[in-house]
Design brief:
Zincin-like; Immunoglobulin-like; alpha+beta; Neutral Protease, domain 2; globular; 22 strands; five-stranded antiparallel beta sheet; 3 domains
């Protein structure tokens, strides 16, 4: 029975991802990337602690990258096999439970995105440069890892590339060193980060400050200089947005916030930890993407600091970020959150009623109904609790679980502490029943 349990997938939505038997605490990546040939060479140093006696262990790594050497705990080269996206390592000696696992993997190849039900995710070539957008399982396209959202660790990322290019990774830039025609950028991300939120962005970019030097949260943009004027207009209200979200959601969870604008168009923006990535098309000079600017910023709290342990709970990321769009609309002088909620509910009433938002299944986990019904769950909760209790709940939620792994049950349980009556019927109707509920009247709601 125990053996059968061990073989169960860590997440039914991504049964091939994640690994048992250890917990990673830190990744240190030394990468060299050649833009013209899309060639990546890497050395990954992974520090972990075993949770059981380990005769062998595995890491997630794309087959497009070839492994040349694996070391375990400083010993001579370990045996390994690399098949079907799994790097299985057999150390010379068993590692005891609670033992330190220090793994070094040297690898190289032509990185390509991981193909799946949601399209291609991971390392992607741009016209001039590269981006990484890994949600939900693309991290293995560029480094060996325990690729599951519940596996959060600190990172140091060193990326060396041709000197004309700007290279961005998560965290604080520790140093930048140029030798001959190449520049090395070294970043440190001390706060725990899920693998899918780790990112590299490379392009013909310049760095600009957003807002005032006196702002409590430093904000920057990395983008082509040709987009500067449009960016200043389209993202001009981002400092006010940051102030509003800090008021509503609690302290910003990271040291700084960076927006990357690629020189290429992108279908959708992408969140990473401390970073959001937009395409040149999102700078249209008309603030046409401001809703998305709010959405991606909100993910720094909901998704990046508080990260789901199982993908079935993805509404905790996307429902909250969608609701943040509505909150910002009202704060910015647009339609109220209540108006937008009722419009969204009306639109959903015309869509098929065949989704369980609290467990949508892997094919539908990024369905727009997860986003909108997740947000409507929060609006219904707000109408039931009233604004003081609702926003106190959000503060408690983001503070209590800061930089942690979360579940829907934990949120439902916490919400119950803010109400004298059971809130379970609200959550059941919106998250776990297929028929679309009615929104209660807006009596007493401020928006």
């Amino acid at each position: 029975m125990a053996e059968k349990f061990y073989e169960l997938p860590i997440d039914e939505y991504l049964p091939q991802n994640g690994n048992r038997g250890y917990r990673v605490s830190r990744y240190e990546l030394e990468l060299v990337y050649k833009v013209a040939s899309n060639r990546l060479s890497g050395r990954a140093e992974i520090t972990a602690v075993t949770t059981a006696v380990q005769q062998r262990f595995s890491l997630d790594l794309s087959q497009s990258l070839g492994v040349t050497k694996v070391l375990v705990n400083g010993a001579k080269a370990a045996k390994y096999a690399h098949q079907r996206g799994k790097l299985t390592v057999t150390p010379a000696q068993k590692i005891p439970a609670g033992g330190v696992l220090a793994v070094v993997v040297q690898y190289s190849g032509t990185p390509t995105p991981v193909r799946g039900p949601w399209g291609e995710v991971g390392w992607e070539e741009l016209t001039e440069g590269a981006l990484v957008a890994s949600q939900p399982n693309g991290a293995a396209s560029w480094f060996p890892c325990d690729d599951h959202p519940s596996s959060k660790a600190s990172y140091r990322i060193s990326i060396t590339t041709e000197s004309p290019y700007y290279a961005v990774a998560n965290g604080k830039l520790l140093r930048k060193q140029t030798k001959a025609s190449q520049t090395t950028w070294v970043y440190d991300q001390p706060e725990p980060m899920a693998t899918y939120l780790a990112t590299i962005q490379i392009g013909p970019y310049n760095k600009y400050r957003v807002g005032s030097a006196h702002d409590e949260v430093p904000m920057n943009t990395i983008m082509p200089s040709r987009l500067r004027a449009r960016f200043d207009h389209d993202f001009g209200r981002q400092p006010e947005m940051m102030a509003e979200f800090r008021k509503l959601f609690g302290p910003y969870p990271f040291e700084s916030y960076t927006v990357v604008i690629t020189d290429d168009d992108l279908e959708i923006p992408i969140e990473a930890q401390g970073i959001s990535i937009f395409g040149a098309n999102h700078c249209d000079g008309r603030r046409g993407a401001e809703r998305l600017v709010a959405h991606e910023l909100a993910h720094q709290w909901f998704g990046n600091s508080l990260t789901v342990g199982q993908w079935r709970d993805i509404w905790l990321h996307e429902g909250f970020a969608c609701y943040a769009e509505w909150l910002w609309s009202q704060a910015g002088g647009g339609a109220t959150a209540d108006q937008l909620a009722r419009a969204a509910r009306q639109n959903l009433s015309r869509a098929p009623q065949d989704i369980v938002v609290g467990d949508p299944g892997p094919q539908l986990m990024f369905d727009d109904r997860v986003y909108k019904r997740g947000a409507l769950t929060l609006h219904s909760l707000r109408l039931a609790l009233g604004d003081p209790a609702f926003f106190a709940l959000l503060w408690d939620w983001t503070t209590r679980y800061r930089h942690s792994t979360v579940s829907a049950e934990e949120f439902i349980d916490l919400a119950g502490h803010f109400s004298p009556v059971s809130l379970r019927p609200i959550f059941d109707r919106w998250l776990y029943d297929q028929p679309l509920p009615e929104l209660p009247p807006a009596v007493g709601a401020t928006g």
